[in-house]
Design a protein that fits this description.
mainly alpha; BLOC-1 related complex subunit 8; about 100 residues; 2 helices
Amino acid sequence: DEEAEAQRITDKFTESVYVLANEPSVALYRLQEHVRRSLPELAQHKADMQRWEEQSQGAIYTVEYACSAVKNLVDSSVYFRSVEGLLKQAISIRDHMNASAQGHR
């Protein structure tokens, strides 16, 4: 039965080719090729992300610094009001002294 023998040999050959095509080393080779092709783009994405992170950190620092400056201005309004009051008192005293000086003439 030569036809059955040929079919058996063909089946074994097909099975061997299938096993070879799916052998782990072939899978690892395909994985390595995929990584080799993908790596430059992934490296570029990583560099872009790092640059964006640095820019974001800079922007966050700037905003935090600005918020701190505004808070300090708001907090210092008490001192500005105090200085304003002292200036008004000084002007009033000056005006009173000028009036007194003119009265003595």
